[in-house]
Design a protein that fits this description.
The protein is built from 15 helices and 23 strands. It is α/β, with parallel strands linked by helices and 618 residues long. Helix 13 (513-520) packs parallel to helix 14. The longest helix is centred in the N-terminal third of the chain and has 64 residues, at 20-83. Residues 87-134 form the F-box domain.
Length: 618
């Protein structure tokens, strides 16, 4: 590089110290350098501007190509869809696929109708896939979804209806707007087969210009048949994060008074739509967790139902109401046509013991209101009106003594019998003969020993093949049954188990822990037995039993006797040639504190062990 182009070398040309002449020359040199620097700045700016224009033009070209590619990909996707095998499926075959899906997922129609225009047209033209109504809703929700469902199910298709009305739980305003009670799990303590709901992704959005998606959210009840249950929502919004439909208020400007009035009419609107289709009911199940404002709408459930096979109206808590004119309260001379009805469940709702609906049944389950009092002979009359009963469950918290003599009643086909409530029901059991009984649950007020009742029933029934026995097990689980004394607490002796050799499952509550376990160990002088009790027992459950300090040792001794250490070559001791079956499942709830070491030992002897400590030890 030339010395004139280097600032450092240029400075070296001037003398030190500067003279007047050298200063003038240096000033001229500096001016020349400043002009050169300005020229270079201009060239750099021009080059940068040119580069920016090139980048901008390139980006515009790239964006244009990306848009053209996206358009082409959409066209290609539509073309692939057009030539895809499913497009060549005949509509009849696609309908058959829809029907197959409907068998496993009763509410699939809502999803199928939201896929595309073709599928929506097909789904709406198939009333059968809309014939199973599975709805979890609240009074704040619109009842029009029921109308829509019924309209799509056609005019002649039999209806299978399950509706669960949940109470609206007050929450903070922000939480209430985002997650209403209708999208929460089923209420606590509710005896329903529906498990807790889990949100599922919504169906894909409809094509542009297509019909809107159904105003419905979906919850998965896969644990019980894989049912997808739509939730009726008052309005629809979408979570901006996950795209899940969430419940909002009917209107942000709606006053609380207007909402209250709307909630008061939900039942009347819903049951107006439902009762208009009673002639198509094949199965009707309506459950609610507490009394609601429009509960009187149930009075409209009256008239002919020629297809009805199963009917259930249940409340999780007593819903006090006056006399109703609905089917379960009909007069004996009423001529409602319900020839196919075989299953009836009424829980905490009014009914009349003489209603024609309570006859010729195969499955009957009744739980009365605390204010309902029925004489024993009338209860027996209800039972005798259905001689072909296969399953019977009765819970009467208030019972009057019999007015007429109790006649012996034999139910030849009954295999499941559950009775609970007032202590006078023991007298009712003494009038029954159940030769094919397989499951027995007794949960009555234990003022008198119940072992004689069971022993006499077994003797009268000629030793039925009883495989499951439950005594006061529900009472001691904390359920509100209205019982004063647990059945198990009044059991003085377990010798009645000697006649139950077929028993495989035994559940007891409120008993003397040590006495019970001693009776199940090897027969000897201590328990006064000559043979094993319940030699085929595989499941044993105890709840709320009272102990006197030796409970854990008695439990270990019983398991040691029935489940010996086979790895060490030990076997159960035979008594009268009988060796007991090993216990495969053991449940001990709120009886004793086992401790980690005992729990570990139990798990080495029993396949399944479930234990919970008493409340005072927690």
């Amino acid at each position: 590089m030339a010395s004139s182009s280097s600032p450092m070398l240029s400075c070296l040309r001037f003398p030190e110290p500067p003279t007047h002449t050298s200063l003038q020359e240096a000033r001229r040199e500096l001016a020349t350098q400043q002009k050169s620097a300005q020229d270079l700045d201009n060239k750099i700016q021009d080059a940068e501007d040119h580069l920016a224009r090139l980048i901008h033009e390139s980006k515009c070209a790239i964006r244009q190509m990306v848009q053209e590619k996206e358009t082409l990909e959409k066209d290609m996707a539509q073309m692939r869809a057009y030539i895809s095998p499913i497009k060549r499926l005949p509509h009849e075959l696609l309908r058959h696929i829809f029907y197959m899906n409907f068998e496993d997922y009763p509410c699939c129609a809502w999803v199928l109708a939201a896929v595309c225009k073709l599928w929506r047209r097909l789904a709406l033209s198939m009333p059968r896939i809309w014939s199973k109504i599975r709805l979890v809703t609240t009074q704040d929700s619109s009842a029009d979804i029921i109308r829509l469902w019924l309209e799509r199910s056609g005019v002649n298709t039999p209806l299978d209806i399950e509706i669960f009305l949940k109470s609206s739980n007050p929450q903070s305003s922000s939480n209430s707007r985002r997650r209403r009670a209708s999208s929460s799990p089923v209420g606590d303590g509710w005896p329903t087969p529906w498990p807790e709901a889990a949100w599922m992704p919504p169906p894909p959005p409809p094509p542009a210009g297509g019909p809107p998606p159904p105003i419905t959210a979906y919850v998965d009840f896969a644990a019980h048949g894989g049912t997808v249950i739509p939730l009726a929502l008052p309005a629809q919004a979408f979570d901006p994060l996950v795209g899940i439909p969430v419940t909002t208020e009917r209107s942000t400007s709606t006053s609380p008074l207007t909402k209250t009035r709307a909630s008061m009419h939900w039942g009347y609107i819903a049951f107006y739509y439902l009762t208009e289709q009673m002639h198509r009911w094949e199965r009707f199940v309506f459950r609610f967790d507490k009394k609601f404002a429009s509960i009187a709408a149930l009075k409209n459930v009256t008239g002919d139902a020629p297809m009805l096979k199963e009917f259930e109206v249940s409340c999780a808590e007593p819903a006090f109401a006056g006399d109703w004119t609905w089917l379960p309260c009909a007069k004996p001379n009423t001529t409602h046509h319900i020839p196919e009805l075989h299953s009836l469940t009424l829980q905490y709702v009014p009914f009349k013991w003489s209603a024609p609906m309570l006859s010729n049944l195969r499955n009957l389950s009744l739980r009365t209101l605390p204010t309902t009092q029925i004489a024993l002979d009338r209860i027996l009359y209800m039972i005798s009106q259905s001689p072909a009963l296969e399953s019977l469950s009765l819970h009467f918290s208030a019972v009057n003594s019999a007015v007429l003599p109790l006649m012996p009643t034999a139910l030849q086909h009954l295999h499941s019998f559950s009775i609970g409530g007032h202590y006078l029901l023991n007298t009712l059991v003494d009038s029954l003969s159940l030769p094919n009984l397989q499951s027995l649950t007794i949960d009555v007020d234990g003022r008198d020993p119940v072992e004689d009742t069971i022993a006499n029933l077994v003797a009268r029934s000629n030793s039925p093949p009883l495989t499951t026995l439950s005594l006061a097990y529900a009472t001691n689980s904390g359920s509100a049954s209205g019982i004063y004394y647990a059945t198990g607490s009044m059991i003085a002796s377990w010798h009645f188990l000697r006649e139950l050799d077929h028993l495989r499952t035994l559940q007891v509550g409120g008993i003397s822990f040590e006495t019970f376990l001693t009776s199940l160990t090897f027969p000897d002088d201590e328990n006064g037995q000559e043979k094993w009790l319940c030699p085929n027992l595989t499941t044993l459950a105890m709840r709320g039993c009272h102990t006197h300090g030796e409970g854990v040792s008695k439990l270990v001794h019983m398991i040691e006797a029935r489940n010996p250490d086979t790895a060490a070559g030990h076997t159960a001791v035979a008594a009268n040639g009988v060796v007991p079956t090993r216990v495969k499942r053991l449940e001990v709830h709120e009886c004793v504190t086992t401790g980690l070491d005992v729990m570990t030992w139990l798990q080495t002897r029993v396949d399944e062990v479930v234990c919970s400590e008493p409340a005072f030890d927690r």
